[in-house]
């Protein structure tokens, strides 16, 4: 449960101007996608420069999908990410093997047992819930039925999936998440962030 308002993560950033804008607008966390099929994918070298542009007290998050463990360890030696976000079918043992705080994403559909996931990934810093879309691990812009989220989830809940400035206040009122996470909902086109939409989203979430 948030004390006054949920924390806000803007995900899928790829340029320094947007990183600065997101931080200045008041986001709590900035996400970088390290998944080649995604239109928001970023390589390690440009990510280094973007991480250097993130000011103090803004959490940096690296999103990975079923990444090769050796490649990921090498990547983490080069990038000072604060938090890892696992968005694939990673096991609990895999997630905790890198020695860094992590959150686990779950794509929700009818029959998904979020309490079971919370027990399996009990040491995660949060459980991120997203819409289930066959063959796509995230960033689809699709929402899901929020009533599928149990009220007694023992991990901090991060709500994602189909959020935008027009519905984030409603989502916060209905779900009362610890945090909200947005990517496609603040884009002009796939992978291209819209600065105006980012500012509107953050204002809407803060006013909820």
Q: Explain this structure to me?
A:
The chain is an alpha/beta fold and 208 residues long. The chain has one domain: Alpha-Beta Barrel (TIM Barrel). It contains seven helices and ten strands. An eight-stranded parallel barrel has the order 1-2-3-4-5-6-7-8, surrounded by five helices. Strands 9-10 form a two-stranded antiparallel ribbon. The two termini are 14 Å apart. The mean pLDDT is 93. Belongs to the TrpF family. GO terms for molecular function: phosphoribosylanthranilate isomerase activity. Keywords: Amino-acid biosynthesis, Aromatic amino acid biosynthesis, Isomerase, Tryptophan biosynthesis. This is N-(5'-phosphoribosyl)anthranilate isomerase. It catalyses: N-(5-phospho-beta-D-ribosyl)anthranilate = 1-(2-carboxyphenylamino)-1-deoxy-D-ribulose 5-phosphate.
CATH topology: TIM Barrel
**Low-pLDDT windows of residues:** none
Mean pLDDT: 93
Percentage of residues in strands: 15-25%
Write the layout of secondary structure elements.
Blueprint: E1 7-11, H1 16-25, E2 29-34, H2 44-52, E3 59-64, H3 69-78, E4 83-86, H4 92-96, E5 102-108, H5 114-120, E6 127-131, E7 157-159, H6 168-175, E8 179-182, E9 187-189, E10 192-193, H7 195-207
Helix pairs in contact: 1-7
Keywords: Amino-acid biosynthesis, Aromatic amino acid biosynthesis, Isomerase, Tryptophan biosynthesis
Domain N-(5'phosphoribosyl) anthranilate isomerase (PRAI): 8-203
Family: Belongs to the TrpF family.
Which keywords apply here?
Aldolase_TIM
């Amino acid at each position: 449960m948030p004390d006054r308002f949920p924390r806000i993560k803007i995900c899928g950033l790829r340029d320094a101007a947007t990183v600065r804008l997101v931080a200045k607008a008041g986001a709590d966390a900035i996400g970088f996608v390290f998944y080649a099929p995604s239109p928001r994918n970023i390589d390690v070298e440009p990510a280094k420069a973007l991480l250097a542009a993130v000011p103090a007290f803004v959490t940096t998050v690296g999103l990975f999908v079923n990444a090769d463990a050796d490649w990921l360890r090498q990547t983490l030696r080069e990038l000072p990410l604060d938090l890892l976000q696992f968005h694939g079918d990673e096991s609990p043992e895999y997630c905790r093997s890198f020695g860094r705080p992590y959150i686990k994403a779950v794509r929700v559909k009818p029959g998904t047992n979020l309490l079971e996931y919370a027990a399996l990934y009990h040491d995660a810093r949060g459980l991120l819930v997203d819409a289930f879309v066959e063959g796509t691990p995230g960033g689809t812009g699709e929402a899901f039925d929020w009533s599928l989220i149990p009220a007694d989830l023992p991990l901090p809940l991060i709500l994602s999936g189909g959020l935008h400035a027009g519905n984030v206040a409603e989502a916060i009122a209905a779900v009362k998440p610890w945090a909200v996470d947005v990517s496609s909902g603040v884009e002009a086109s796939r992978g291209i962030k819209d600065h105006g939409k980012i500012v509107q989203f953050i204002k809407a979430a803060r006013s909820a």
